[in-house]
Amino acid sequence: MLKYLIDENLPPLYAEQLRKQRPDIVVRAIGEPGVPSKGTLDPDILDWCELNQFVLFTNNRASMPVHLKDHIEKGRHIPGILTLNPRMTIGETVAELITVAASAFNDEFQDRIDFLPVSK
């Protein structure tokens, strides 16, 4: 099952609802103990996600593609990046993240940025 690292620029409600609805899914948010602290640079977050096998959930559509490209060009990999769809409600987004976590196969999102929804 996928593990999620929630970007610091997303409301805490995403992590809270994921944990409440599916406590079996590992969900961490930037700034919590044991994960990158708030203000960590995006390339360092990608390094952490690679090392710890977490899919990053973010709303960063602008610079994240550049950081991912640089990461891959260094011969590195990342389990994936899922990007928020601002037209989806929090409930729809949480439901989509649960579906994706439960149904994704190994390396399905590796080295990619996917925009929600991905299960449709």
Summarize the structure.
Helix content is 37%, strand content 13%. The chain contains four helices and five strands; from the N terminus they run E-H-E-H-E-H-E-H-E. The model has no long low-confidence stretch (mean pLDDT 96).
Q: What would you note in describing this structure?
A:
This protein has 120 residues and is α/β, with parallel strands linked by helices. It is built from four helices and five strands; from the N terminus they run E-H-E-H-E-H-E-H-E. The chain has helices at residues 13-21, 42-52, 64-73, 90-103, and strands at residues 4-6, 27-29, 55-58, 81-83, 113-115. Helix 1 (13-21) links the parallel strand 1 and strand 2. Helix 1 packs across helix 4. The longest helix has 14 residues, at 90-103. The two termini are 19 Å apart. The mean pLDDT is 96.
**DSSP strand tally:** 5
Tell me the helix content: 25-40%
Task: Estimate the strand proportion.
Answer: 5-15%
Oligomer: single chain
- Strand order in the sheet with the most strands: 2-1-3-4-5
Report the principal-axis shape. globular
Distance between the termini: 19 Å
Radius of gyration, in Å, reads 13 Å
- What order do the helices and strands follow? EHEHEHEHE
Structural class: alpha/beta
What does the largest sheet look like? 5 strands, parallel
What's the helix count?
4
Low-confidence regions: none
Mean pLDDT: 96
